[in-house]
Structures are given as C-alpha cells and as structure tokens.
Amino acid sequence: MKKGVLILLVLLVLVISPAVFSEQEASHGLGKGEAGSSFYCLVMDMPRPEAGDVRYFITKCGEYTTWKLWPGKEKLFEGKEPHGALLTVYVNKIAFNSLDEKKGMQNGSMIVKENYTSDKKLAAVTVMYKSEKYNPEAGDWAWIKYDPDFNILAEGKVKECIDCHSKAKDNDYILSGSIK
Question: What is the spatial distance between Cα 60 and Cα 63, in angstroms, rounded to a whole number?
C-alpha cells in the first residue's frame, strides 16, 4: 500500500510540476512555445524544433557558450553575408561527436552561430537544429534567427536559409566546414 501511494505521489509531481513551473516562468517573461520550465531541462534530452523551445534550451538548460567551438574555428572569425562580418560558431555535443565521427550530422545536432558586425557588436544569433522527420526536404534542419536579446526573427523551414544552405546539400546543408 505504501509503495502504491509513493508511486501516485511521484506521478502527481510529474503531472503537476510542469504546470506550476510554467506559471512561474511565464511570470518571468517566457512566451508561448517556450519549453516552459526548469523541469523541462531535467526530463527532455532535446527541445522541439520551435524557436521558443530552442531558445529556452540554449539559454536555460545549458548555456550554449559553454559548448565547443566549430573545429578549426576560433571566436570572431571572418564571416560572410548574410550572417555578418565576424562569426563565432558553437556546436552541441551531438554535433561535435558527429563531426568527429565524420558520418554526417546526427539528429539532435545543434549549431549556434553568433553573428557580429565589423566592430564586434552582436547583431544576431542563428541556429541550425537537426530534428528527425521535421523537414525531410531540407535534411531535417530547422533554422532559427534571434536578435541579440533572443527575440525570434525567423524560425522553422525558412526559405532564405534553405535556399542558401542548399548549395551544400551534399554536406548536409552545412556551410561552416566539411562534415565527412
């Protein structure tokens, strides 16, 4: 009987906690489409391919600036339009391991690019996130663009991103360097 009550309590916590955390975090400025709680970071490996969830994931669940840099690139290397004069590219562990294994990018790979002006002012943060079955026509990538304050400027199956990155279709839509 005690074991049954404990299981019931655990289930209630799992069901109620996200709602409680969501209300608390909504009062702190998180919008619709956000992962919604620090509880989310504990139970989810990766976010949904939605800009709000990705923003929460890369800023609250583990600051993306602690990730490894794209291999062979330093911070503030010379960039190209449309991204900016200077770039810094971070990759999550899945992407880094994919690059290391040279088998192509695995689902869950996330690439975060800080886009700077020539005077080193952050202009935007752009993200490529590979999510299984999300966008088969474009390698299952979701593209997201935020302003420096992480307001969403573009998200999803962004035509301009797909058109540009399609030049590297054989390199899994990646322009930053060879992945195989």
Answer: 6
Whether the CB-CB separation of 152 and 159 falls below 8 Å is answered with no
Q: How far apart are CA 95 and CA 63, in angstroms?
A: 16
**What pLDDT digit, counting tens, does each position of 92-149 carry?**
999 999 999 988 899 999 999 999 999 999 999 999 999 999 999 999 999 999 999 9
104: left (phi over 0), alpha (psi -120 to 50) or beta: left
Q: Provide the sign of the torsion angle of the four alpha carbons 164, 63, 116, 99, taken in this order.
A: negative
* Total residues belonging to the chain: 180
**Nearest alpha carbon to residue 179 among 81, 78, 72, 85:** 72
The dihedral through the CA atoms of 103, 82, 114, 59 has a sign that is negative
* Cα radius of gyration rounded to whole Å, the chain: 18
In whole angstroms, give the CA distance from residue 174 to residue 111. 10
- Contact in structure between 115 and 122 (CB atoms under 8 Å): yes
